[in-house]
Amino acid sequence: MSSSTDAAAARTPAKLVFAAPRRAKPPRHLADLSPAERREAVVALGEKPFRADQLSRHYFARLVDDPAEMTDLPAAARDRLVGDLLPPLLSPVRELACDDGRTLKTVWKAFDGVLFESVLMRYPDRATMCVSSQAGCGMNCPFCATGQAGLTRNLSTAEIVEQVAAGARALARGRIPGGPGRVSNIVFMGMGEPLANYRSVIGAVRRITDPAPAGLGISQRAVTVSTVGLVPAIEKLAAEELSVRLAVSLHAPDDELRDELVPINNRWKVAEVLDAAWAYAERSGRRVSVEYALIKDVNDQAWRADLLGRLLKGRLVHVNLIPLNPTPGSKWTASRPQDEREFVRRLEAHGVAVTVRDTRGREIDGACGQLAAQSG
Ligand code: SAH
Q: Residue 222: what are its φ and ψ, rounded to 5°?
């Protein structure tokens, strides 16, 4: 880690800011373990190491979730291995579909009753899983539904991977219109701040992207980790030498407004977050995505578009404008169409690539910032 990170860490110990409440841990699962750890675990159960590879093939490559289909495992061994390494982690509490079934939101209940959500979005050319990394979120952004309830707990690596595996099963088994398919893209844009649950998220990225049967075999380049801008964690992520895309939720180009919209900005300022983002882009070779929810008369002024354009000009970056999806009771709403157009125009005038995010899943509260566990 760089010396600037050390200095930042010295100012505020990260654990004071991000510590999740102490709770019982989810049971250990195959997807929590690296291939070497899986073999150790299998041996500890008195089985031959190759049984770990058989289990991995069932879980990651064949997407099997019914032990009865694991016919290459002798019954006694299967019961022992499945009982210890494939405990049920998540049960669906509710499923909501829209876009003719091509968008599917699932509310999951974990072993301890906590609820969180994932969203599968199938497009003609790809299928994206939007996953949660935490139950709730501690970042407290006032426009985000998840931010209102606070953090319940971090999800384990396997609880994150299971969300993807569930989507992969639904596609593979033809449950989503369009014929059997595969998950091609992953976005860590569900509930939670992924970089505040660093270890589990990195583990999940590895399980998701390791080639099958070690993992699910999804391309690292098709994975996006979205963050409020936890600078030391962005630096740590860069050092992992992964080729995942980084998305930074900026939402304001100036510290005065960002302090309010993304409260962690009181700790790491716009300039520090962008510096960390540019370092990530350089190291990974990946264009950074800057997320900007357009909020009427709050952050959508022409001067803010120009300021943002000046900050981003000439960088390896792409701006994703998200029409604000108002949370219940919110005093804020999405920008007027003409203001959105002018915002885009001004960014483009600075030579900055920009797109406006589609609003898939709005009717089922599956769109950005709407992932609140109201199903309890
Ligand atoms: N904690 C991560 C992931 C959050 S969700 C992060 O902050 O990046 C992914 C994106 O949706 C973030 O950019 C978040 O700021 C944005 N978002 C949250 N609530 C929203 C809302 N009500 N309308 C539009 N975008 C929202």
A: -95, 10
